[in-house]
Write a structure and sequence with these properties.
- The protein is mainly alpha-helical.
- 69% of the residues lie in helices and 3% in strands.
- It folds into two domains: 150 residues, no CATH class; 78 residues, no CATH class.
- The protein is built from 13 helices and two strands.
- The protein has a two-stranded antiparallel ribbon with strand order 1-2.
- Helix 9 runs antiparallel to helix 10.
- The N and C termini lie far apart (54 Å).
Length: 266
């Protein structure tokens, strides 16, 4: 499978996962969106040396992956490019911060090492929280939640169209590369001399396709905002789910849960 085919397959697979009939997918999208923002804000608010507190925040993605029937293997594969990037952010901290912040026997831990670990954990946890939202909520549901938060409709429409058009753009790219491969059998890759012309063709084909899509939208009564179907009402389970995680995450953020639990066994 080529890289383009794999990218198209991954996008379609995420959409299919978000539209499955599971309990996590049925929770109101506004609840999941606000909870994700709340979790990210709490996660990034930890002190740069507070590794214990961040470890407590791991409870949320671990539990949600279980009850949402999400696979860690698929998540790690789909985030294989993003996760290394967020881990590189604080990789140079140990070279600049040599203050001793902890001692384990004869081993001294520098502040730069702690800050590096916390930055990595913050990046990883926020990425996984965003992935949980995307994997359990369709793009229409996310846009519907944005509109409930009174995000300007032009921004929501642009977000939805860009997301939907990525697949079309990849499909056009696939057609162009296949046509080039048929006209240049035996050649590995695309010669650099034709990069400009192929990109120009891709741009022209994309503009033509965009015109066709817009005309189809106008014929179907598009008036500047997409109808996201029948508004979904919040059920008692959605409210209970939201309140439960708000309280749990607040307790983890406020109190050193790992330290208190560890003290029970000492």
């Amino acid at each position: 499978m080529s890289k383009i085919n794999r990218a198209i397959y991954e996008l379609q697979s995420i959409d299919a996962t978000a539209k499955q009939n599971r309990w996590m997918n049925q929770i109101h999208p506004l609840v999941k969106l606000i909870l994700t923002i709340y979790y990210i804000v709490l996660t990034v608010s930890f002190h740069k040396y507070d590794v214990e507190g961040l470890l407590g925040m791991c409870i949320y993605p671990m539990v949600v992956f279980i009850i949402g029937d999400l696979k860690w293997k698929d998540a790690l594969y789909r985030l294989r490019i993003v996760l290394p990037l967020v881990c590189i952010v604080g990789i140079f901290n140990p070279f600049f911060d040599h203050r001793v912040v902890a001692t384990f026997g004869s081993v001294q831990v520098w502040g730069g090492v702690c800050s590096m670990i916390t930055l990595m954990l913050k990046g990883i946890l926020t990425v996984f929280a965003s992935y949980i939202l995307i994997a359990t909520t369709s793009i229409e549901g996310i846009c519907y939640a944005f509109r409930l938060l009174h995000v300007p409709k032009i921004m929501v429409t642009q977000f939805l169209l860009i997301y939907r058009y990525i697949t079309l753009l990849l499909t056009e790219t696939k057609r162009i590369t296949q046509a080039y491969a048929l006209r240049a059998p035996g050649q590995k890759g695309i010669h650099y001399k034709v990069w400009g012309s192929l990109v120009g063709q891709l741009l022209l084909r994309s503009m033509d396709r965009a015109d066709d899509v817009y005309e189809s939208m106008c014929l179907r009564g598009f008036n500047g905002e997409f109808p996201f179907g029948k508004p979904k009402k919040s059920a008692g389970g959605d409210v209970a789910y939201f309140i439960f995680w708000v309280i749990v995450l607040f307790v983890i953020r406020t109190y050193p849960v790992f330290r208190l639990v560890g003290g029970l066994f000492v």
